[in-house]
Amino acid sequence: MKCLAIDDEPLALNIIKDFCSKIDFMDLISCCTNPVEAVKVLNHQEVDLIFLDIQMPNITGLEFIKAIDKPPMIIFTTAYSNYALDGFELNAIDYLVKPFAFERFFRAVNKAYEMFYLRKNKNIQPATTVSHQNTQRYLMIKVEYSTVKLELDRILFIEGLKDYVKIYCGIRPVLTKTTLKNLEEKLPQNEFIRVHKSYIVQFSKINSIENNRILIGEKRIPIGNQYKTQFYNMVDSKRI
């Protein structure tokens, strides 16, 4: 995955360069201290992902992205957390607040790589015949007055709230009017599992399991008594 870093602070660029060197699927092709340099790179090389600072002289990272036609995937890297909503509205993959640790950086780029992989392989047909439910890698979600496409691989977990569900998929959860049961029926059962009357998790996003609690990122999700057997059977089937 070809990457470009843009930041007016050389120290910040060095950290990104160091972190990228530790990840096999990352190819950091250039580091730029201003957007003008970055435009030259984008005009001459294919870029899949940009690490982008927001507060820079002359033009902000947000203004830069809005000015680009069909921009690559974006991970914002900034010292200011108050721009998170703006980043989400620009479909950023993630939003890293400086200083960030390698573990947090890796989680962000892993999300980007998942999307990159799906885009590269979207025209490859499966070798065996599977159900339509398993081949559809997205949901169409009604959010307020619009309908948005949500890639399944972005979903971390889902929380039921009476007649609404909250889908956690990054910086800002997506809230839609439906029931957890209705949504559960539309998800591939080999990837998503109901673990509580109020929670569905994507199994591959689980970081750890401790004392009947599932840890995904910083969220601890309880495992309900009636769902324990099914959940731990799935754990055992994937245990090495």
In short:
The chain is α/β, with parallel strands linked by helices and 240 residues long. It contains eight helices and 15 strands.
Could you characterize what this model shows?
The chain has 240 residues and is an alpha/beta fold. It folds into two domains: 2-120, Response regulator (Rossmann fold); 137-238, OB fold (Dihydrolipoamide Acetyltransferase, E2P). It contains eight helices and 15 strands. It has helices at residues 10-21, 35-44, 61-67, 84-89, 102-120, 132-135, 180-184, 228-238, and strands at residues 2-6, 27-32, 49-52, 73-78, 94-97, 138-143, 146-151, 157-161, 164-168, 174-177, 192-196, 199-202, 208-210, 213-216, 219-222. Strands 2-1-3-4-5 form a five-stranded parallel β-sheet, sandwiched between helices. It has a five-stranded antiparallel β-sheet with strand order 10-9-8-12-11.
CATH architecture of the largest domain: 3-Layer(aba) Sandwich
Instruction: State the separation between the terminal residues, measured CA to CA.
Output: 29 Å
Any idea how many domains? 2
CATH-assigned fold name of the largest domain: Rossmann fold
Helical residue percent?
A: 25-40%
Work out the strand percent.
25-35%
Radius of gyration over C-alpha positions, nearest whole angstrom: 19 Å
The CATH superfamily of the largest domain turns out to be Response regulator
Element order: H for helix, E for strand: EHEHEHEHEHHEEEEEHEEEEEH
Give the arrangement of secondary structure elements.
Elements: E1 2-6, H1 10-21, E2 27-32, H2 35-44, E3 49-52, H3 61-67, E4 73-78, H4 84-89, E5 94-97, H5 102-120, H6 132-135, E6 138-143, E7 146-151, E8 157-161, E9 164-168, E10 174-177, H7 180-184, E11 192-196, E12 199-202, E13 208-210, E14 213-216, E15 219-222, H8 228-238
Parallel strand pairs: 1-2, 1-3, 3-4, 4-5
Antiparallel strand pairs: 6-7, 8-9, 8-12, 9-10, 11-12, 13-14, 14-15
